[in-house]
Amino acid sequence: MGVDMGTSTGLNENVEGLLTYLLGFVTGIIFLIIEKESQFVRFHAMQSTITFAGLWILSMAFVYVIPFIGFMIAWLINVVTFITWIVCMYKAYQGEWFKLPVVGDIAEQQIGSFHQ
User: Fold this and answer.
1) d(CA 85, CA 60)
2) Measuring CA to CA, how many Å separate 28 from each of 17, 32, 47, 74, 85?
3) What percent of the chain shows pLDDT beyond 70?
4) Is-contact 19 85, C-beta < 8 A?
């Protein structure tokens, strides 16, 4: 479990961490803007923003670039997105610095936090 160091909003870190994923990159961006104290929340907000913006762009690219087969690939991406969304919200709520492959390292570098 993460140590609750306080947040700018007054919410518990684990609740704020979960909320960074709630609406994908939208809530990720919101919490990147409003959260100034908690590196835990900022990490999850950055990871949410990068992950879900990237998956959304990838899905849309397949739909618009490749007719029919693109829809099937986008559907698979959306299934992966949904599973990732659930896992990330659960892990953040548990207070874990859960890092997705590749994206987690990028998010960590972007916020300047190197939590072990």
Assistant:
1) 18
2) 9, 6, 8, 22, 12
3) 92
4) no
